[in-house]
Q: What sequence folds into this?
């Protein structure tokens, strides 16, 4: 029988910064062996709510709360010293990205041991001798399924793989055997397959009696792990309930919007819905809005190959001198108006492939041709005039903007040839056209990049790319850093560009669900090689290669 | 593999010292005027034959390349030449005074470290931090010789707590060391404080706090190590400040030491001594750099070696 | 600096004060007669070693010369050397450093490895060595200090060029098909220059102190020329009797350097806010 002992209860939590209310009257509770998920986009207040459970709110925050009981202790009037006594011992925290959440200058074992050094042996609170601590650490690492725990404990965080690091971080939070664990985006920085393993680990810990509060923006992640879910928006909980209920029959419009916007992979009617969305995105770009003086961007329904890559290979030298093939024997054909997804985990070579296709890098083996003319291995001055035909949209556009430039100047830099030489008035009009086509208001023209939001920056990047009237857009994880609702709008924009302008897309991503929304065909990469390729629906519904199967299986599902 | 890196390292150090020695040689050969005239001083009356014999004795009549090679070969054997002015081997001239300067440098470094650490670690609260920032700014901006004079004026002449000049005993060491230490403490404190503040905003500090760590533990076990990294980059500057400061401070406080030797050599155009000090300084710098590199490795286990790309087909 | 409204206000006041002071010192350098009717070289044996008073705010020295007047007239040398040496060093540093930063990696790494350590010598030491070569004298001090300032600017210019060269926006510009020359002019140079300008502002302070230091040691202008460092060394022997002779010139040096540093830091923070 599972204990229904409550491990956390908080009610009426209100957090203010000065006059601004960031968390408004939030109440929730979690029992042992239960997992509650708090879901919301950036700015929803979910992180602050979680931090309040540890007393770790930033300076300047004023907190008011009606009830706050943590693992049986009333923490309402706690001073920082009181909080320190229960942090780690009664409540633990796991953050995202263990690479920065573990002290990179300390050994993994030291981080795991810290709780015990501070609080003493779990339960009794007695000082433990060094050997005892070491044993406890090894045991804890073993419990989170870290192989060879004693050796791992002596290593540094950067020497471990992403998945092992995250487990070590979880171990460091649980070493004091708290009754409740706060997990703040615990799997965001991880590859899909590794993510699945960590979620399994958390599920196992929950079964063993741990109460968990998971913060996430990813509904799919949450659906597998959480018993109950609370949706937050603008500091308030707008909907709360049993996970299956909320996800299949959302009541509140915001929840409904989140679910509709979230790219999901699945069988049955949802796959059809996703495919249909690809074909008719919700926005429209009228061809006349952009200057198609180049003529006939729409005419390419014929299957002329725009980009033809054969046997591409790219090697790098490791520190110890050995060779590593980032890309090995990859061939690809991109036809006009096509959309091809390139999926794989980190280290699969997909970014290197993108750079080879863009001729930002030259291959050691094989070749790429653009519109029938050689593209790779050609001196740069011969390529320069054609660069406008193939453009890049990257994950972090901020780095690709000169910080001194205004939006207008950034977009203008993309103009080429005749468009460049027109009068300033015509140029300005063209820039406004471009901004309009990506859904940006002309008032943003004089802003600088750091003044824009993530979604706005991505649109500016797309506008700049469109300025040169490209035939192909290579996108490298362009939406990974964006909120779900913004993701959806950018995906719609890219779909509309494809449909209305005939631009071909090469979309590199680790997120299968996003790829499914955008790409007719998909290519799966692992360790630099293509392991499978074909129509998206076929590959995702009936994957043949074992790696593809693992990828598809690891995708968090939703009902 | 490791052996190859050590050898490369040692080779690099030797190259630097050789570079400094060669630079000193070349540059001093550029000194306008006849070295013998310079050596004898403007007022000396010497017959041309006497000058020529001195020239031969010092090997100054040989072609440049020969002079250079013999200079190098002597250096390798530890012979830094003979002082024009004092008629002693340069190594002896430096050796005699080295002790005083080392004493001064060590004391200054110790005081600077203490002040910097206190200023960075123990000072909390906006007001106190603001005050310390201003103090640090003053310390960095004030010319060291002026600081020395002010300290002398107040504590030696005014209050009589410390001796006015000389080098006997700890008493006479405090004011000079303090003078050199203050600017160093200023910049070191700033870097340490910024380093600590930056480290405090990192996610791993949140993790540590979530384990129940208090401020003392956070600083001692976590952030101080991180702040030490940018502070280490100052090591070269600090050593240079200690040496440069010694020159000035030994003059202000009338202390014996390398600084006096250098100053007198410069003023009297005693070229062998100047060259010897340049080479000596280069050796010190190279050693300090080595120590700093080792310290880096000890503190930060992350090795930043990006995989190097093999040039693609061009 | 401390945050919050009062912190910002204090910062604003500090900036204005610093800028004002720099203007005053510059005025002293350019038009000293505005500040004092006296002659810096005029001795007056009846007024030897007088403490500060209404008519003579900084007192008089051992030959009866008015210290305030000498300090005012000393500004021109110090400021002139500071600004001039810094400007010259900046130009040389930018040229060499940018070229080094743009050079193919092989050449750059081989050349910079050993040079880096030598470049770590602090300015004052290099200036000392330079004076050792050139011999004492006011012009030589200016040259020595200028030479000593060059390595720092080379280092920064090279580092900035390297960073900018590898930055995302330079790669993006190349990806757009922009010609490399245009990339250099439109992106690399402007982004490299801004931090350098800021560092130069702070660097003027260091140069002024270095020049004053060399003069203090007797390697620069000689008596009776009024020069801040020289005034300080003259005051050294009078510490017991007439502390004001040494005190005030030092105050002025400190205030000038503080102001230059404050202004420079504010410029840097303004630049960073944009980035």
A:
């Amino acid at each position: 029988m599972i204990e229904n002992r409550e491990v956390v209860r908080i009610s009426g939590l209100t957090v203010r910064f000065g006059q601004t209310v960031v968390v408004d009257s939030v109440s929730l509770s979690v029992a042992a062996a239960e997992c509650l998920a708090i879901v919301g986009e950036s700015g929803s207040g979910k992180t602050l709510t979680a931090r309040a459970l540890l007393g770790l709110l930033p300076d300047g925050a004023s907190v008011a709360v009606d009830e706050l009981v943590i693992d049986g202790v009333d923490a309402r009037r706690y001073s920082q010293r009181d909080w320190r006594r229960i942090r780690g011992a009664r409540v633990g925290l796991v953050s995202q990205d263990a690479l920065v959440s573990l002290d990179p200058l300390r050994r993994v074992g030291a981080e795991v041991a810290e709780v015990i050094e501070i609080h003493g042996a779990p339960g009794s609170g007695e000082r433990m001798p060094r050997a005892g601590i070491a044993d406890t650490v090894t045991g804890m690492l073993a419990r989170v399924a870290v192989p060879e725990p004693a050796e791992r404990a002596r290593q540094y965080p950067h020497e471990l793989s992403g998945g092992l690091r995250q487990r070590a971080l979880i171990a460091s939070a649980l070493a004091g055997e708290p009754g409740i664990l706060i997990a703040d985006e615990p799997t965001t920085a991880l590859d899909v397959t590794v993510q699945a393993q960590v979620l399994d680990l958390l599920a196992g810990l929950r079964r063993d009696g741990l109460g968990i509060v998971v913060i996430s923006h990813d509904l799919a992640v949450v659906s597998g792990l959480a018993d109950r879910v609370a949706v937050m928006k603008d500091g308030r909980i707008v909907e709360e309930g049993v996970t299956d209920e909320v996800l299949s029959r959302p009541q509140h419009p915001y929840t409904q919007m989140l679910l509709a916007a979230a790219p999901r992979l699945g069988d049955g009617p949802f796959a059809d819905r996703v495919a249909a969305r690809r074909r008719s995105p919700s926005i429209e770009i009228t061809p006349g809005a952009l200057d198609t003086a180049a003529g006939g961007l729409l005419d390419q329904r014929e299957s002329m190959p725009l980009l033809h890559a054969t046997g591409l290979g790219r090697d790098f030298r490791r520190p110890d001198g050995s060779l590593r093939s980032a890309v090995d024997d990859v061939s690809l054909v991109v036809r006009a108006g096509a959309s091809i997804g390139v999926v794989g985990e980190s280290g699969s070579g997909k970014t290197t492939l993108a750079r080879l296709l863009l001729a930002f890098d030259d291959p050691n083996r094989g070749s790429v041709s653009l519109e029938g003319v050689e593209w790779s291995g050609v001196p740069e001055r011969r390529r320069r005039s054609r660069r406008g035909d193939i453009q890049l949209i990257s994950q972090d556009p901020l780095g690709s903007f000169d910080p001194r430039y205004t939006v207008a100047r950034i977009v203008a830099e993309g103009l080429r040839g005749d468009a460049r030489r027109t009068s300033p008035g015509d140029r300005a009009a063209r820039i406004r056209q471009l901004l309009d086509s990506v859904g940006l208001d002309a008032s943003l023209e004089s802003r600088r990049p750091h003044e824009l939001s993530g979604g706005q920056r991505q649109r500016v990047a797309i506008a700049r790319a469109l300025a040169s009237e490209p035939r192909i857009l290579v996108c490298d994880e362009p939406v990974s850093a964006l909120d779900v609702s913004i993701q959806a709008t950018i995906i719609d924009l890219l779909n509309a560009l494809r449909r209305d302008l005939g631009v071909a897309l090469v979309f590199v991503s680790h997120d299968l669900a996003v790829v499914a929304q955008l790409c007719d065909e998909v290519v799966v990469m692992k360790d630099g090689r293509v392991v499978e390729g074909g129509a998206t629906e076929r590959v995702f519904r009936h994957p043949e290669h074992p790696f593809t199967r693992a990828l598809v299986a690891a995708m968090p599902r939703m009902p | 593999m490791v052996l190859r890196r050590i050898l490369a390292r040692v080779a690099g150090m030797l190259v630097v010292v050789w570079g400094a020695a060669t630079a000193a040689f070349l540059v001093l050969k550029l000194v306008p005027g006849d070295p013998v005239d310079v050596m004898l001083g403007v007022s000396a009356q010497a017959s041309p034959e006497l000058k020529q014999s001195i020239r031969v004795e010092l090997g100054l009549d040989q072609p440049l390349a020969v002079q250079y090679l013999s200079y190098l070969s002597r250096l390798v054997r530890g012979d830094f030449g003979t002082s024009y002015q004092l008629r002693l081997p340069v190594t002896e001239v430096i050796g005699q005074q080295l002790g005083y300067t080392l004493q001064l440098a060590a004391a200054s470094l110790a005081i600077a470290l203490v002040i910097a650490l206190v200023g960075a670690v123990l000072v909390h609260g906006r007001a106190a931090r603001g005050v310390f920032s201003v103090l640090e700014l003053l310390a960095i901006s004030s010319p060291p010789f002026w600081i020395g004079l002010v300290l002398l004026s107040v504590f030696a002449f005014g209050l009589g707590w410390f001796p006015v000049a000389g080098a006997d005993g700890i008493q006479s060491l405090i004011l000079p060391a303090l003078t050199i230490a203050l600017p160093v403490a200023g910049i070191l404190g700033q870097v340490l404080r910024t380093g600590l503040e930056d480290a405090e905003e990192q996610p791993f500090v949140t993790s540590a706090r979530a384990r129940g760590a208090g401020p003392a533990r956070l600083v001692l076990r976590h952030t101080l190590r991180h702040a030490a990294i940018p502070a280490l980059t100052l090591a070269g500057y600090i050593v240079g400040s200690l040496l440069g400061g010694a020159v000035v401070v030994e003059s202000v406080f009338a202390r014996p030491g390398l600084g006096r030797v250098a100053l007198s050599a410069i003023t009297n155009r005693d070229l062998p001594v100047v060259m010897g000090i340049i080479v000596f300084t280069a050796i010190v710098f190279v050693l300090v750099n080595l120590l700093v590199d080792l310290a880096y490795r000890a503190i930060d286990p992350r090795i930043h070696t990006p995989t190097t790309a093999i040039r693609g087909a061009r | 600096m401390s945050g919050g409204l009062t912190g910002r206000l204090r910062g604003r006041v500090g900036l204005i004060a610093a800028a004002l002071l720099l203007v005053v010192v510059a005025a002293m350098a350019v038009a000293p007669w505005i500040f004092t009717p006296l002659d810096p070289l005029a001795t007056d044996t009846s007024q030897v070693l007088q403490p500060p008073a209404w008519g003579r705010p900084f007192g008089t020295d051992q030959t009866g010369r008015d210290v305030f007047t000498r300090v005012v007239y000393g500004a021109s040398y110090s400021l002139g050397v500071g600004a001039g040496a810094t400007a010259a060093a900046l130009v040389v540093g930018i040229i060499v450093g940018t070229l080094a930063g743009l050079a193919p990696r092989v050449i750059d790494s081989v050349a910079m490895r050993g040079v880096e350590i030598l470049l770590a010598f602090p300015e004052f030491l290099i200036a000392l060595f330079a004076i050792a070569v050139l011999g004492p004298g006011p012009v030589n001090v200016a040259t020595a200090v200028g030479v000593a300032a060059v390595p720092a600017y080379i280092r920064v210019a090279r580092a900035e060029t390297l960073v900018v060269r590898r930055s995302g926006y330079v790669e993006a510009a190349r990806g757009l098909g922009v010609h490399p020359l245009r990339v250099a002019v439109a992106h690399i140079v402007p982004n490299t220059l801004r931090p350098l300008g800021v560092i130069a502002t702070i660097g003027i302070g260091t140069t002024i102190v270095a020049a004053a230091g060399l003069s203090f040691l007797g390697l620069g202008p000689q008596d009776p020329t009024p020069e801040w460092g020289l005034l300080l060394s003259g005051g050294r022997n009078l510490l017991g009797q007439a502390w004001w002779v040494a005190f005030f010139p030092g105050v002025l040096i400190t205030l000038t350097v503080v102001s230059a540093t404050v202004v420079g830091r504010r410029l840097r923070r303004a630049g960073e806010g944009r980035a």
